Amino acid sequence: MTAELVRGQNHTLPQTRLEIRVSAGSPVVAGATLGDERGTVRGAEWIAHPASHRVPGLEVSRQAAADHRLAVDLDALPAEVHRVTVVLALPVGAGRPVSFGAVAAPFVAVTGLDGTEIATFTLTGLDTESAVSALELYRRQGAWKVRAVGQGYAAGLAGLFADQGVAAAAETAAAIQEAVASGLARSVTPPPRTTEGERVRHPAGPAAAGAQAPAPPVPEAQPAEPLGDPASARTEAPGGGPIDYAHPRRQTSAPPPPPPTAPPAAPGQPARPVAGDATGWSMDERLYNQIWGMFEDLARAVAAYRSAVDFAESRMDQELDRALSDPRNRIGGAGDRAREAARAKRDELTGRAREALERDLAQLAAESAVVEPALPAAYAGWDNPVWHAYHVPMEIPMALRLGDLRLGEAPDLRIPLLVRLPLERGIWIDSGRTASEAAASTTGDQLRGLAVETAVTLAARLLAVYPAGEFSVHVVDPAGSAAGQLSPLVGSGVLAGPPAAGAEGVASVLAHLTRRVDLVQMAIRAGAADALPPDLDTGEHLLIVNDFPHGFDDRAVTQLRYLADEGPSVGVHLLMVADREDARAYGPVLDPLWRSLLRITPVADDHLADPWVGHAWTYEPLRTPQGSRVLERVLALVAEARRGGRR
User: Fold this and answer.
1) 350 touches 308 (CB < 8 A)
2) How many whole angstroms separate alpha carbon 560 and alpha carbon 549?
3) What whole-number distance in Å separates Cα of residue 441 and Cα of residue 454?
4) Element (H, E) at 403
5) In angstroms, what is the C-alpha Rg of the chain?
6) Of the candidates 22, 21, 49, which has an alpha carbon nearest to the alpha carbon of residue 33?
7) Residue 498 to residues 383, 473, 474, 491, 634: CA-CA distances in angstroms?
8) Do residues 191 and 21 touch, judged by C-beta distance below 8 A?
9) pLDDT tens for residues 413-422?
10) Largest alpha-carbon pair distance within the chain?
C-alpha cells in the first residue's frame, strides 16, 4: 500500500533496490546527493547530476525533462553514506520559469522495480525557490527509510549545495546547468501509469475535505471538539498544479473495501462481525475506523432507546391527563382502568425499545469480542496478549488508546478511546475529587497516587509505540512526592533525565523545552530546518508535570502555558497531573491552560460528552492486570532499543 507523505513524515522502505519517479508540469533537472551521518556531502563525487549521472548505487537522467526515473541500489552505496537526497532544480535560460511558484507542483514517488508505489510526495507550498530537496532516503538502526523534505532554496542549486557542505557549491551548480544547456543526454522514458489509474484533477485551490469522520467525546460541557479527523482529498490542478492536503495521513480517493473474511450470514440473521471490517488503506486504519463506528453505533442505539422511553413516558402522561380531565372518570373504576391502560401501553413501548437495544448491544458485544484481540499494541489494553509479542516499532502508529468509554445502559460494553498521533493537544489527569462513585470511595492521597500511576502508564504506552529514540519523556516533580509511582520509568532508564525536583530543577527542564520550541518554530518560519543545532533532539517530547501548581513560580507558570499552546505543533507535549482546585489561587490566568488540555481521570468518571446526542460517557483509565509485569517488560525492551540506537 502506498504511503502518501507530507513534509517531515517518514516511511520504512521494504526493499533496497528502488526507482524514484519525478513528474512535473514543466522540465526540471533531477539529481541526488550522498551524505554522511551528519548529512554532509564530502565532495563532487558524491553528487549525481546530468554532467556526472552515475555514482555507486545511484543513476540519474542526463537532461531536463518533465518526467524522470532515478535508479537507486541502497546496498551498493559506499559504507560512509547514510543519506540520499533527491534534488530538483529549474533549468536556466531565456523564457524558462525562474521559480517553482510559477510551475505545477512536482510529484515524486518511490517505487519498487515493478513500478509498485511505496511512498509518494507532492511538493506544495513552493514560491520563489528554484531548487528543492524533495526526498531523503536515510539509514536508521540498520534500516532504510524515506522522508518527505520539500526544502526549497531561492539561491538555487548553489544555495542547496552550500547548505549540504559542498566545498565548490557555485561551481558545481554552474557545471550542472551548463550540462543541461548543452543537451548531453538521451531522452528519458516517462514513468508508466500506476494501476490506480489517473489521479484526480481539478482546478487549483484547496482540496475539498471528504466525509466527516466520527468525532470522539470531549471534556465536560465544553464545545464539542473532534479528535478524529475528516478524510482528506487530494486535488491537482491541470498540469499538476498546487495540491492541498486536508489530512496528512489519509489517501484521497475512497479506500478499498476490506476483503471478505467471513461467510455471509444466513437470511434474516445479523452479519457476522469481522475485525477490520471497515474501509481503510491498512489494517490499522480499518480497525481505527471500525472502533469509531462502534462508538457511533452505541451512541445512537442508546439515544434511540432513551428517546423511545421518554416518548412512552410522555404518551402515558398525556393519556392520563385526558382520561382524568373528565370528572366522571375520577369516580369508580374508570380512572383505575385508564391508569392501567396507559401504564400497559408505556410498558409495551419501552419493552419493544429495550428489545431493539438488546439486539444492538448483542451485535456490538460480538463485534467487540472479535475486534479487541485483533488490535495492535497502540490500540490494545494492557491485558491484550499482543503485548507478550511486543517489539519496538519502526513507524509511528495512527492512533493511541487512552482508555475505555461506556454508557450506563451497557456497563459491560467498552469502546476504546483513541486519539490520533502525533498528539494535537496536551492531557490533564485530574487528581482532585469528583462526583463519581469511584472517586467518592477513594481518599485524596489514593487519588493523587492513582493519577501519577495513570500518567506513568500513558507515558509508557507512548514510549512503546514510537520508534526507538524518537520519543523522549521528561518529569517535573518539584517536591519529589511521586517517587514511588515513577519508579517504573526511573528504574528502566527510559527517561531523558532524572525527575526534576526543586525550583532549580523545574526551571532547568522548562527552559530546555521552551528553547527547543523556540528554535524549531524559528527554523520552520525561516524555512531553515537544516540549520538547527546538531545537539537538538528533533524527536517528540513529553513533559510530565506532577502536583501542579506546587513549586511553580510565575515564570514557570508562563512557560507551561507557552508549552501547552505552542508545543504540540513542534513535537512538545504536556501531561499534567493536578487538582484543578489547587490552582484556584491563580484566578482566571490559568483558565486557558486547562481549556487547552484534554481532561481524563484516574478513576471511572462520566465527564466526557459526544457531539451527536450529548451522552455523558464514563471514562475508565487503562490499568495493568493485577500482578502483571507487562509494564516493566515493555519498558525494558524500549530501554534496550534506545541503548542500541545510541551505539
Assistant:
1) yes
2) 10
3) 18
4) strand 399-407
5) 29
6) 49
7) 29, 10, 8, 10, 20
8) yes
9) 999 999 999 9
10) 112
| Residue-level pLDDT at 221 | 33
- Distance separating alpha carbons of residues 380 and 630, to the nearest angstrom: 13
**Over the stretch 222-279, which tens digit does the pLDDT of each residue have?**
333 333 333 332 333 333 333 333 333 334 445 566 655 555 656 666 667 888 888 8
45 grid coordinates: 563525487
Give, as one character, the DSSP assignment of residue 433: -
pLDDT tens for each residue of 281-321: 888 989 999 998 899 889 888 988 888 888 888 888 888 88
Amino acid symbol at 603: V
**Structure letter (DSSP) for residue 317:** H
- For residue 458, CA distances in Å to 378, 463, 545, 598, 635 come to 11, 9, 13, 13, 12
| Residue-level pLDDT at 263 | 58
d(CA 62, CA 181): 11
The phi, psi pair for 529, rounded to 5°, reads: -60, -30
Burial of 455 (0-12, 13-18, 19+ CB in 10 A): buried
Asked if 425 and 596 touch (Cβ cutoff 8 Å), the reply is: yes
Question: Beta strand pairing status for 117-122 and 83-89?
Answer: unpaired
**Bridge partners of residue 143, in order along the sequence:** 140
CA distances from 607 to 436, 470, 497, 598, 620 (A): 9, 33, 34, 11, 11
Eight-state DSSP code of residue 530: G
Give CA–CA dist 328/517, Å, rounded.
79
Phi-psi region of 344 (alpha: psi -120 to 50; beta: other; left: phi over 0): alpha
Q: What is the per-residue burial (b if ≥16 Cβ within 10 Å, else e) of 540-573?
A: bbbbbbbbbbebbeeebbebbbbbbbebbebbbb
Q: Which of 437, 471, 493, 438 is nearest to 575 (CA)?
A: 471
Query: How many other C-beta atoms lie within 10 A of the C-beta of residue 19?
Result: 18
Query: Which pLDDT band holds residue 373 (cuts at 50, 70, 90)?
Result: very high
Helix (H, G, I), strand (E, B) or coil at 293: helix
Q: How far apart are CA 365 and CA 368, in angstroms?
A: 5
Closest CA to 248 of 3, 525, 13: 3
Q: Which three cell numbers stand for residue 407?
A: 454508557
Gap between the Cα atoms of 396 and 402, Å rounded? 16
- Copy the grid coordinates of residue 209: 475535505
**27, 142, 40, 147: which is closest to 86 by C-alpha?**
147
User: What is residue 18's three-state secondary structure?
Assistant: strand
Per the DSSP assignment, residues forming a β-bridge with 572 are 541
- Per-residue pLDDT tens over the stretch 457-503: 999 999 999 998 899 999 999 988 999 999 999 999 999 999 999 88
Tell the residue number behind the cell numbers 556526472, with chain if given: 52
Closest of 540, 545, 555, 524 to residue 597, by C-alpha:
545
CA distances to 225, 252, 314, 321, 387 from 343, in Å: 41, 54, 11, 13, 52
Under 8 Å between Cβ of 597 and 629: no
Q: How many CA atoms lie within 13 A of 63 on its CB side?
A: 13
Q: Which amino acid is at 425?
A: R
Q: What are phi and psi of 278, to 5 degrees?
A: -155, 165
> Under DSSP, is residue 383 helix (H, G, I), strand (E, B) or coil?
coil
Cell (9 digits) for 628: 502483571
Helical packing angle, 444-465 and 630-646, nearest 10°: 40
Rounded CA-CA distance 245/251 in Å is 10
Cell triple for 133: 530537496
